[in-house]
Amino acid sequence: MTHKDRAALYGRIGLILASFAVIGGVVAEPLLRPLWSPRLTVAQR
Fold first, then answer.
1. Measured between alpha carbons, how far is 30 from 42 in angstroms, rounded to an integer?
2. What is the pLDDT of residue 39?
3. Which distant-in-sequence residues (6+ apart) come within 8 Å of 9 by Cβ?
4. Residue 3 and residue 5: Cα distance in Å, rounded?
5. What is the pLDDT of residues 19-28, one digit of tens each?
6. pTM check: above 0.70
7. Which of 5, 11, 13, 20 is 20–30 Å from 37 (CA)?
8. How many CB atoms are located within 10 Å of the residue 25 CB?
């Protein structure tokens, strides 16, 4: 396996992993939003 082939293979694997991470983030964001949002309310008088 030449250096160019190995770089192409690692690039493809990296793109696949990045796409799974993006899709997982889009799916998990609505589920994790209540954990991230602060429980602080600001009231004005």
1. 23
2. 67
3. 1
4. 6
5. 999 999 999 8
6. no
7. 20
8. 10
